[in-house]
Amino acid sequence: MADTTTRRRRGAGRSGGRAGAAARRGDAVIEQMPWDPPVNIDRPTEPLEAEGVAAIHDGAMRILEEIGIAFLNEDALRLFREAGCKVDGDVVRMDRDFVMEMVARAPAKFTITPRNPDRTIEIGGRNLLFGNVSSPPNYWDLEIGRKVSGNRDMCRNLLKLTQYFNCIHFAGGYPVEPVDIHASVRHLDVLYDKLTLTDKAMHAYSLGKERVEDVMEMVRIAGGLSDEEFESTPRMYTNINSTSPLKHDQPMIDGCLRLARRGQAIVVTPFTLAGAMAPVTMAGAVAQSIAEALSAIALFQYVRPGIPCVIGTFTSNVDMKSGAPAFGTPEYMRSTQMTGQMARFYGLPMRSSGVCAANVPDGQAVWETSNSLWAAVQSGTNIVYHAAGWLEGGLIASPEKFIMDCEILQQIQRYMQPEVTSTAPDAIALDAIAEVGHQGHFFGIQHTQDRYTSAFYQPFLSDWKNYEAWESVGGIWTAERAHHLFKQIIASFEAPPMDPAIREELAAFVVRRKEEGGAPTDF
Amino acid sequence: MADTTTRRRRGAGRSGGRAGAAARRGDAVIEQMPWDPPVNIDRPTEPLEAEGVAAIHDGAMRILEEIGIAFLNEDALRLFREAGCKVDGDVVRMDRDFVMEMVARAPAKFTITPRNPDRTIEIGGRNLLFGNVSSPPNYWDLEIGRKVSGNRDMCRNLLKLTQYFNCIHFAGGYPVEPVDIHASVRHLDVLYDKLTLTDKAMHAYSLGKERVEDVMEMVRIAGGLSDEEFESTPRMYTNINSTSPLKHDQPMIDGCLRLARRGQAIVVTPFTLAGAMAPVTMAGAVAQSIAEALSAIALFQYVRPGIPCVIGTFTSNVDMKSGAPAFGTPEYMRSTQMTGQMARFYGLPMRSSGVCAANVPDGQAVWETSNSLWAAVQSGTNIVYHAAGWLEGGLIASPEKFIMDCEILQQIQRYMQPEVTSTAPDAIALDAIAEVGHQGHFFGIQHTQDRYTSAFYQPFLSDWKNYEAWESVGGIWTAERAHHLFKQIIASFEAPPMDPAIREELAAFVVRRKEEGGAPTDF
């Protein structure tokens, strides 16, 4: 990919033609699948026997009982003390009865209702939901051709993709950090962009009181809700990471407690990199991750019984040669599946991710991301963070990668449709087989004609032309095809409708909070 | 990839450095996993309930009983008549009792012993074996940069890759058709190349009596075997496709009967493309595929009870817009899984494939191939044809794709190692977690030191460097990295040892058979 300029130029003719045709048809750039969050119909892949589940559970419980978790949050320490846990300095030890009693309070399923109620998502059970990449500080696309700091335009474009693709069900954190906006007011500008450019379920970073409170207020305003309505059911969520090993930081816990007290949802995702912040053995890394997650969930359930909580996994391994994190590895897949078994053991909804270590949207990026996405499917994951757009271990967001990932996500959506594996008599199709007999073909028969428009998955990015036809329109590789689509989608993007009065109220809130100085940046 | 020249030049420094380092070390180009064919420890993914299995079985049996299969082979028609089946013209109808009785004779497991007995493979049970791409007429690599007809050099290079990679367990058909060799003698030259460049299990095309007999003779010579020894256990195999719908051709059946009579293994793989040669509904396409396969397997079991037979699947769907075949689709994955359930129902080992429709080794190639390889894993497939090197629906072989696929195959090998998911006390690692506590890291502790060299999968092609380090050595995308490895592997390739007397005997056989005119080309 040394010469992206040449490659872009070669593809221009085709992409222009396609965009033109779409404009003539007056429809969208691509024909995509409808909004229809998949239901995972497969039995999960379960590498652990019952004894293995028991061993990891016992390991996690002994970590909580004997080693304890550090909570660098006074509020949390006070609450744990009040609940009868042992608190030594900032280390909290809790017995397994307490933990299990608290965790049992968490619902197995809950909904998040964004400003557009048609985009309500149900988390838990067999639901499988995908969100955009979150939080990379950097951006890469084929046109720029190198890694650059994220800015607000890039962030807005990735938010447009988040909204555009029906296979993206919720908005994660910032799809790229807009580092051109001062950190004190960044959350205000990005949330304004998120709430006006998308109508999907919203996320707040737990990075200090002001940010969390501002985001909750903006989500409330965008939904046209009273405080009471906002708090009556989850409207948004936060995601926190523990500071492995065995530690929760002040702002993360603070943010969660604020959301919990207002009835909003919490995802707790330890980042236990085996061999670095967790044991080099995957079961140990999973046990530690479980302990870290459950300690926080227990706290939130103590404070607000029944508050929706999701157990997240981010257990992967390092490259033992360099110490660099690896993603989508065989060990990553197995730890995700093991965590899935544990999540079901605790009756908690689960989060995992779509991840890779690759630096550009090439073959490696796809096999690592495919591995992680299929591990999510196999583990019974309910929400998949970073499902589209992630590169370089989360340090880069890329629109080409976003679009390539959406192709895979749509395939997973189709894969989960029960009609694919129907064995009803008209699916066995004995009459059609008899009709065609030993000589003909099935193209023209009625059984085919009745079904052909919906019989098979239709990709929007995979190119199924033969080599010669593919070459005749430029011989364009996948990442470059994705780049052309990116340009077209952005050019034709229409924001979801929003009441002008609400938009004004949101804008006024942003202006006022900026005048007040936004949030402190010394978190 | 418009400018492969530039891109190759940019990468040269790095690859040269790597090759130099390898040469200095005096070891292989890459550190790869050892020869250790995976055992599939996962429960298969089973989309069908028991009633679904029964419905497809009943559909297949009714096809055999009511519609029948055409056998364009007089020998087969005579044998079916002798067995009491109804033969009308070339259409054979057989009742389910006969079919099930014959199929029950096939072993659930068997071995193939190639000239190097250390490369013996066991087919069936939970064994998972990978073979090279077979039969593309065309070739593509980054240096050539376009699709060209295959030749003997290309074929030899791909055979070297087949031998080099420990994750390739058997040699399929020609990894590319060397169309520069006349068809009458092509099998002689390629088998000479295959038998001298590799020591893995061999395949014969069932394309006429002379070819099949010549290949059996050459495999016998290469193994230093008497006729009796050759016939005492499978030394090789053939793979046939039916001519869907519902037909078996003369040379395919002829070849299988020849192998069956000499105790060699047979893979029967209908090519039922849903919407073209099979019903547009996947269960119908699977039922038809099962019927086509079982009809041939029943014949072979009638002729030679207990002869090793494998049921193959090649059920995919067409692109309903163009009629072109699609591969690695959601429908492909589900049909492979469904066929896996049927194979277990019949007690037969199973074959599936690693396939894609992509024209170059790009992102699409990887997601389609990953989908098909993981579907093979999930289906309980025993042998995976085309597991490395396939492009453009099997019309192109590519060394870069071969090497990229081997990276994925190695990951599957690692994924299946039980130690990854061990929950033994030292894997839960409570002492290590206690030792590190709330502040440290796990890099330096004894628990990590004792395990770090083997704790995690080490890729040979994935690049886990961060962006800056990756960029500083040329910013090379996956396909180009694979190209560099290809050059190095070929440059340093050493053929497996062969007794000079055997080599001479093989060469003399080729000379003699060429003098005799080889095989007719009007098959």
UniProtKB/TrEMBL annotation, chains A, B:
From which organism does this entry originate? Cribrihabitans marinus
Q: Which residues form the signal peptide?
A: none
Keywords per UniProt:
Methyltransferase, Transferase
Organism's domain of life?
Bacteria
Entry's Pfam families? MTTB (PF06253)
Q: State the family named in the UniProt similarity comment for this chain.
A: Belongs to the trimethylamine methyltransferase family.
Question: Is Transferase a UniProt keyword of this protein?
Answer: yes
- The enzyme's E.C. designation: 2.1.1.-
Task: Answer whether the UniProt record assigns the keyword Membrane to this protein.
Answer: no
Region: Disordered; residue ranges are 1-42
Give the protein name, as stated in the record.
Methyltransferase
